[in-house]
């Protein structure tokens, strides 16, 4: 790796492969050189993803004290940590992977696509929500069309839940991939929210196709839905 202008090379390069596959070597090298990984360690966040929510919040003023929110796909808990700092009245996280406890949050270890999940989340919320966050991502298969369908399916399930539980004026933030909010999903978002925008936080890797859709101003249960 060379930097322009003959600067001293500061990036960490792995000296030996030590039996690692090329893909895991590249992953490790990227982790070691990632400023957000270093920052999350220094600032006590469990994931570099925490900075994505911090940036989205700075741009869209999503998190407010006393709010009720749900974090879909919460493990390892970076977004929960960010959200608890704003003193929510109720914060529920869900993931099928274990999430270590976060003070101020209730965590369900459950597949969001399980048919019991919406009911269990609503029960834990005990009322309407002001904000539904989804950073869910299924493991990729490498088969583009399958991966795309899975992303859309998760986003649709998250939107179904948001439409069911959000109070009027509420917001919905969902990880999608480029092209993920075309067609029907985008039409449903526009029908249900007064503002629908896409954002790619700086903490989201440039080479990743991930973007977030930020829908604000939920029109409420009586709005027309497609
Ligand atoms: C990018 S990570 C979330 C990182 C998290 N926002 C943070 O800040 O630590 C995506 C998560 O979505 C979860 N996930 C994917 N599909 C899910 C599903 N059907 N139900 C629950 N969690 C799911 C994965 O297990 C994974 O932990």
What are the salient characteristics of this protein?
single chain; 226 residues; Rossmann fold; 7-stranded mixed β-sheet; disordered N terminus; binds S-adenosylmethionine
Return the domain count. 2
What's the average pLDDT? 88
- What is the helix fraction of residues, given as a range? 25-40%
Number of strands: 7
Form type:
globular
Q: What is the CATH architecture assignment of the largest domain?
A: 3-Layer(aba) Sandwich
Which cofactors or ions or other ligands sit in this model? S-adenosylmethionine
- Quickly name the level 1 CATH class of the largest domain: Alpha Beta
SSE pattern: HHHEHEEHEHEHEE
Number of helices: 7
Task: Give the C-alpha Rg.
Answer: 19 Å
CATH topology of the largest domain: Rossmann fold
Secondary structure category: alpha/beta
Major β-sheet annotation: 7 strands, mixed
- The parts where pLDDT drops under 50 for at least 5 residues are 1-9
- Look at the structure and name the CATH superfamily of the largest domain: Vaccinia Virus protein VP39
What does this molecule look like?
The chain contains 7 helices and 7 strands. By secondary structure, it is an alpha/beta fold. The protein is globular and about 60 Å long. The chain has a 7-stranded mixed β-sheet with strand order 3-2-1-4-5-7-6, sandwiched between helices. β1, α4 and β2 form a beta-alpha-beta unit. The termini are far apart. It has 2 domains: 4-33, no CATH class; 47-218, Vaccinia Virus protein VP39 (Rossmann fold, 3-Layer(aba) Sandwich), CATH 3.40.50.150. Residues 46-47, 49-50, 73-79, 94-97, 111-113, 135-138 line the site of S-adenosylmethionine.
């Amino acid at each position: 790796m060379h930097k322009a202008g003959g600067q001293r090379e500061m990036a960490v390069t792995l000296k030996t492969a030590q039996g690692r596959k090329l893909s895991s070597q590249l992953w490790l090298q990227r982790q070691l050189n990632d400023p957000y990984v270093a920052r999350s360690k220094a600032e006590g966040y469990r994931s570099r993803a925490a900075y994505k929510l911090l940036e989205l919040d700075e741009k869209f003023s999503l998190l407010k004290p006393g709010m009720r929110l749900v974090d879909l796909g919460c493990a390892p808990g970076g977004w929960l940590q960010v959200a608890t700092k704003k003193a929510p009245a109720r914060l529920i996280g869900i993931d099928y992977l274990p999430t270590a406890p976060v003070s101020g949050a209730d965590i369900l270890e459950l597949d969001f696509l399980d048919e019991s999940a919406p009911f269990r989340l609503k029960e834990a919320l005990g009322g309407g929500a002001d904000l539904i966050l989804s950073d869910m991502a299924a493991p990729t298969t490498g088969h583009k069309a399958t991966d795309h369908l899975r992303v859309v399916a998760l986003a649709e399930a998250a939107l179904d839940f948001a439409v069911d539980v959000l109070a009027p004026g509420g917001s919905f933030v969902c990880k999608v991939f480029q092209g993920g909010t075309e067609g029907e999903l985008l039409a449903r978002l526009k029908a249900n929210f007064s503002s629908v925008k896409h954002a790619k936080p700086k903490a989201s890797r440039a080479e990743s196709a991930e973007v977030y859709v930020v829908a604000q101003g939920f029109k409420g249960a009586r709005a027309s839905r497609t």
